[in-house]
Amino acid sequence: MPSTHSDAPPALSKSADSPQSVSILGSRHWYDFVQPCLDSASILASLVMVKFAARGHVDDASFAMGLIAVIVFFLSSQLTGLQRGDRRACTDSEIIRVLATWTMTILGLGVIAFATRYGQYFARSVILSWCVLCPAMIGLSRMCLRIVQFGLLRRGVGVRRVAIAGCNTLGHQTQSNIESDSSLGLQFAGFYDDRNLTRDAQANDDASDEGDTGELNSSTSDPASTLQGDLNDLIAAARSGEVETVLVTLPMRAEKRIRYLLDELSDSTASVYIVPDFFVFELLHARWTQVGGLPAVSVTESPMFGIDGVAKRAADLIIATAGLLAISVPMLAIASAVKLTSPGPVFFRQRRYGLDGQEIRVWKFRSMTTCDDGAVVKQATANDARITPLGAILRKTSLDELPQLFNVIEGSMSLVGPRPHASAHNEQYRGLIRGYMMRHKVKPGITGLAQVNGCRGETETVDKMEQRIHFDHQYIRSWSLSLDIRILFRTLLVVWKQPEAY
Description:
Shape: flat
Number of strands: 13
Largest sheet: 5 strands, parallel
Low-confidence stretches: 1-26, 197-221
């Protein structure tokens, strides 16, 4: 199923008089309102607690600071994805987002305090205690809300019986998603389709052209895959109230059957959702959008639009500038060593593809006796004679990549993203690997998801390059600032122990 920013399948609304009135809206739930309220209460309550413990009273300055903190926190949460994040995300991921959001909040409050001299009203002990207590209370409130949510669902509160129209691959995946995630509040009621035997998913996909009403392979023994009836039975169940929600997973080419089903279900009170079979496409950061009021789904798109792009660029500038200042002396030492140990330039600038396939020049410390940058570039191999003794150490520890901080500051690269390959390698692999160029929908990075998962070194087989591309696509689909932070920390842990880097 496609990855979107909606928490549930979209509802379709149709106006016969005005086609442009069609819209797709995300579902909203009670906890979408309760959760922000709990976050706000945690911020204010934690400040009141530490202020009262320190001074025995709470003044107006504390309440003003608390309200400012709430505002900054929610602005920051839009950047980290905390408030619009997936409710089904794991606890570790949510904790990281809470900490990242609170860190940005503290930095924002620090800037405000410096500009207004407002910080003089608060003792350092109060600020320090608040910095520790507040994220703990936010995390605890979120955990309690999850417990309440799951408890209500286990007791059947808010649970809806859902039937799937279409016993195919998409239908089985939809069933799996429903049964593996209790937070959806859906109880699977069975498959309905216009055949009358237990069906094999792949056979159904192959034979689901319109007009094909024959029986299909009944080899599967999974009782959950047994049909409850045909589409007419589904319509009857919806009209009688036995089924409260219908998910239509019929293939898009089955337009007549879908239209018939929607027309008949309009005479019931069941909620109807269409689950498009977009999995047949290579979706990259898919999202619902509108084009002149008409709904559309992006198939290939960059996640770095609007405020997300600004946030990533700001993080790149701040971290890269601080990092460059911190390692300026070691970089000077490495540059001197490169110059003294082998003839040639200190830096090597190689042509590579950047954002949207535009050519960029990537900085590196020279680690070879040659500076290949032509139509054919031979990848480094184990015991490569072109690598200098110092270069072998630099490449092993990735210290040769440090000058790419200049690329980050100038804007041609990011700290985290798909690693840029030599232009010659791009031209070689783009014809061999499906979707290869989609990795250039974001800026290349000094490190990336592929690198922290062991995809470094020579790609002597197409399979190895395909594995890199898989991680690059996964990074673009699931990008967030918190993911960038996790990749940066993992890079520090794995950079010293990757034997395949040479």
